[in-house]
Design goal:
Blueprint: E1 7-13, H1 30-36, E2 43-47, H2 54-68, E3 73-78, H3 119-128, E4 134-138, H4 139-149, E5 157-161, H5 174-185, E6 189-194, H6 208-211, E7 215-218, H7 221-226, E8 233-241, H8 245-248, E9 259-262, H9 275-286, E10 288-292, E11 299-302, E12 308-313, H10 319-329, E13 343-346, E14 361-365, H11 371-381, E15 390-398, H12 407-428, E16 432-436, E17 461-463, E18 470-474, H13 483-491, H14 493-502, H15 504-512, H16 519-533, H17 539-562, H18 579-589, H19 595-599, H20 605-614, H21 617-629, H22 636-653, H23 664-685
Parallel strand pairs: 2-6, 2-7, 3-4, 3-5, 5-6, 8-15, 9-13, 9-14, 12-13, 14-15, 16-18
Antiparallel strand pairs: 1-8, 10-11, 11-12, 17-18
Helix pairs in contact: 1-2, 3-4, 12-14, 13-17, 14-16, 14-17, 16-17, 16-22, 17-18, 22-23
Length: 686
């Protein structure tokens, strides 16, 4: 058995000020109030984490659109039937709002029997012809209805798409194509809601031209968790094992914690090939089976300490038994009963939209299909609940073994786990506000610059106590020229960082290339991503966005380094307690915080340090060798990007980069020019 500890690659603590769950006089939490202030927008995009109250925010907006904005009906579209329960009747007037949310039972098609492409499509037509105002259906039902009845029948109606990241700008994505048709006709109001505005396949959710039509409301994970009343610490990490996961899972599964265990997909490397036996093994490891509860179908297991665990098995192939357990988990009478269930074992269920506030540990075996799925699973554990000061997510992953045929797949899974970790660090961090440092710089009202106050001559790190925003001054930082670039720097940096850390070649280079010149990643790779994502921006604004994105990523990484690299074990609460402290410590430790210095930082340096702690030295060496064996030389596209950077270098220095330069980045840019010159000569001679 492996002796490796569970290393939290992310470990953050929050203020517990209770603000995010405190309602105003209309019964709205801060996130919902922020959305309601934008209720007049025709196209509204809500980016907000799980458990922040998006469903209720939509109820407030929809009721106003129906009563005051002359829309005829509201259609709520959710990805799967179980999420339809989030839109059942709500007595909003009891909490101060001017109306209640009501859905006629026959119009919540998520509760109706039958298939999405059957009677439910007919029901959509009947609803459109009725005087009733609200319909709830699945993405699939809506797609079929659009294809059958056309776009015109949805004129003067609100279409609200929950879990909006299911669509993409790819023309083959049918729901995305239907959204584009609605926007092209421009006679429908759209509200798009998502807890993770990115996709696991790195496809854009919306085409930039379409996205520009949306007014965005962003509520960050930091705002959500910082404003909780009970939950104050969240740990996220991965645990590598050798052999079979069933022998190792007891090392990370604490029966005293309310836990959702997601066992691996039957086609994954981690799977033992028999999901039923895997569940039986987990139950056996936890204690002695006492039978099944006749009311709920939960498995009763007695631990060595004498406690009887109530385990919900959602993997069971017997549909009747599985449905009985699923119904028991959703029993509204048990929602606030902490002792109702202790452990849930699932495979494809209990992810997106699943609401169990008591979950303290989301334990996932094997890498999941996408970063989106990881974020959704983590969201199961980030609900606020009494007596729940800490929550954690653990990804249990098989160590890559060079003797396996599937070693490349194993390495890819490892890199994906690191990408998920890096992304979550950004998602969980406060928002950054970067300002150029110059002789005329001064303090910004509302920001606290620490005990010594603002220093006009030195580096300054300020924090806004109300929003948690961290402000940093960076010398040489370019400023946005247009409102769109300013919006991207304020709203979209995490999406760019997601694309960056999802690029396999980038992660491989950042982790294992011993001759890496960091600017190849921070300038060339991130620059390419920005250009592809925002082709409509001028070159100057593309560079501004690139600088802001890489500054956000690298400053979080440097803050982690200053605080000891992610914690010293799963129970460590002294490390990583404040990202602000780490940022401030780093900014004040350098002679001058400038953009060139930030560009010279390898964004994956701290991720490698975590990996080295959690994986055996032999395995780490094998992974490095596998990646080194397939390392490619400079490509034509990379050479062109280097040449563009070389022109910028010439504008600043008055000369082109030189191949004999001692600075590795200058030398690399010169190599890019030489590569292009050589190719041009070959083409001419050929």
């Amino acid at each position: 058995m492996s002796s490796n500890p569970t290393i939290p690659s992310v470990s953050v603590r929050y203020a517990q000020d209770g603000s995010s769950t405190r309602a105003n006089t209309l019964g709205m939490r801060p996130m919902q109030e922020r959305c309601y202030q934008k209720r007049g927008e025709q196209y509204l995009l809500i980016k907000s984490p799980p458990a922040s109250g998006k469903s209720r925010a939509l109820m407030f907006i929809a009721l106003d659109k129906l009563a005051n904005q002359k829309l005829q009906q509201a259609i709520i579209v959710v990805p799967e039937r179980s999420i339809g329960a989030s839109f059942h009747d709500e007595p909003l007037s009891q909490f101060g709002f001017w109306a209640d949310w009501k859905v006629e039972p026959k119009w919540n098609l998520c509760d109706a029997p039958g298939t999405d492409n059957g009677g439910k499509v007919e029901s959509v037509k009947k609803f459109l012809e009725s005087a009733d105002q609200v319909l709830v259906c699945t993405h699939a039902t809506f797609r079929f209805a659009m294809e059958k009845y056309g776009v015109e029948v949805f004129d003067e109606r609100l279409i609200a798409v929950d879990e909006f990241h299911h669509i993409s700008a790819n023309p083959d994505n049918r729901l995305g194509e239907h959204v584009r048709q609605l926007m092209a006709r421009d006679k429908t109001h759209l509200v798009a809601m998502t807890g993770s505005y990115f996709r696991g396949d790195a496809q854009a959710v919306l085409h930039p031209d379409d996205e520009a039509k949306f007014e965005t409301v962003t509520y960050t994970y930091y705002e959500q968790l910082n404003g909780y009343q009970y939950l104050k610490q969240l740990d996220i990490g991965y645990y590598f094992y050798s052999g079979q996961y069933s022998d190792e899972i007891v090392n990370v599964l604490n029966p005293g914690e309310k836990t959702i265990v997601h066992i691996p997909n039957v086609n994954s490397r981690e799977s033992l090939g028999d999901k039923i036996k895997e569940v039986e093994h987990i139950i056996h490891e936890l204690g002695d089976w006492q039978g099944a509860d006749p009311q709920t179908g939960f498995q009763l297991v007695k631990t060595k300490e004498g406690k009887v665990l109530r385990i919900a098995d959602l993997v069971d192939d017997d549909a009747a038994r599985r449905d009985k357990v699923a119904v028991a988990l959703k029993d509204p009478a048990q929602k606030n009963n902490r002792e109702h269930v202790d452990i849930i074992i699932a495979l494809g269920m209990a992810k997106e939209g699943f609401d169990w506030i008591w979950c303290e540990h989301a334990l996932t075996v094997g890498y999941r299909s996408s970063l989106t799925e990881i974020v959704q699973i983590i969201g199961r554990a980030t609900r606020d609940a009494p007596g729940k000061p800490r929550a954690r997510f653990t990804n249990l992953i098989a160590e890559p073994d060079a003797s396996e045929q599937a070693v490349t797949e194993a390495v890819n899974d490892t890199l994906k786990a690191i990408a998920a970790s890096l992304l979550m660090e950004q998602v969980l961090a406060p928002r950054f506000e970067f300002k150029p440092k110059n002789p005329n710089s001064g303090p910004t009202p509302g920001f606290d610059y620490g005990p010594g106050g603002y220093d006009p001559k030195g580096s300054n790190v300020g924090v806004n106590p109300q929003t948690g925003t961290i402000q940093l001054e960076i010398k040489g930082l370019a400023e946005p020229k247009t409102p769109e670039a300013e919006r991207i720097c304020r709203e979209d940096l995490n999406e760019l960082i997601t694309a960056f850390v999802q690029d396999k070649a980038t992660v491989e280079k950042g982790l294992f290339d011993t001759e890496l010149v960091p600017e190849e990643l921070t300038q060339v790779k991130m620059g390419k991503i920005v250009k592809e994502t925002y082709p409509h921006l001028q070159d100057e604004d593309q560079e501004v966005v690139r600088q802001h994105a890489i500054a956000a990523l690298n400053l979080v990484q440097q803050a982690k380094k200053e605080q000891g690299g992610g914690g010293g074990g799963s129970g460590d609460t002294t490390q990583n307690t404040s990202l602000l402290d780490g940022v401030r410590k780093y900014a004040l430790s350098v002679r001058e915080l400038d953009i060139d210095l930030i560009d010279r930082i390898n964004p994956f340096g701290e991720a490698y340090a975590i990996l080295a702690k959690s994986m055996s030295e032999e395995r780490l060496k094998q992974v490095a060798e596998v990646i080194a064996a397939k390392r490619s030389t400079l490509t034509l596209e990379e050479a062109r990007e280097l040449a563009k950077r070389a022109l910028r270098f010439k504008q600043e220095k008055g000369r082109l980069p030189e191949l004999i330069a001692t600075d590795p980045w200058e030398k690399r840019m010169a190599e890019g020019i030489a590569f292009l010159q050589r190719k041009a000569k070959e083409s001419k001679n050929g």
